[in-house]
Specification:
Elements lengths: L6 E5 L26 E9 L2 E10 L5 E5 L4 H13 L4 E11 L5 E11 L5 H13 L2 E5 L4
Antiparallel strand pairs: 1-6, 2-3, 2-7, 3-4, 5-6
Length: 145
């Protein structure tokens, strides 16, 4: 896979940059998804409190289905955001990496990474994208034993 990174550097003290959405430690272009559904809750912050708006269930092909738990303006906004990305086979997301510049200072590099639907990172990339572009967050629901 071609390296499609776009980098912006800025100097920051270690630990001061916090990602709004979760990231993963695996590489883009990881192996294909296993054959099981993955479920995430999805919501946003209202007055500093997380408000759940629904769930997204990804099938074995990483095709997601949004299930809203109610109706209203926030749910409509989520549905519109979802409609814009649900059929995309590649998502361009932002990630940060800690590095050292030529002066020896610690820097965070903001990079753009393309995540393909076939990647095991795709479900997480969906919520990185929804967070970055629209302010919605997702949290994976652990499967019941």
């Amino acid at each position: 896979m071609a390296d499609n990174r776009k980098t912006v550097k800025f100097v920051a003290a270690a630990g001061l940059l916090a990602a709004a959405a979760f990231t993963t430690g695996s590489d883009a272009g990881a192996e294909d998804q296993t054959e099981m559904n993955i479920t995430y809750t999805v919501g946003h912050l209202v007055d500093g409190e997380y408000s759940e708006l629904g769930t997204v269930v990804f099938d074995e092909n990483n095709k997601g289905e949004l299930l809203l738990n109610d109706s209203g303006p926030d749910h409509d906004r989520l549905a519109q955001a979802w409609a814009g990305i649900a059929d995309l086979d590649v998502l361009h997301v932002r990630r940060s990496e800690l590095g050292v510049d030529e002066d020896g200072d610690e820097v965070y590099e903001l990079i753009g990474v393309d995540i393909e639907r076939k990647s095991e990172e795709y479900p997480e990339a969906v919520f990185e994208y929804l967070s970055w572009k629209f302010g919605f967050f997702g949290e994976e629901v652990e499967p019941a034993d």
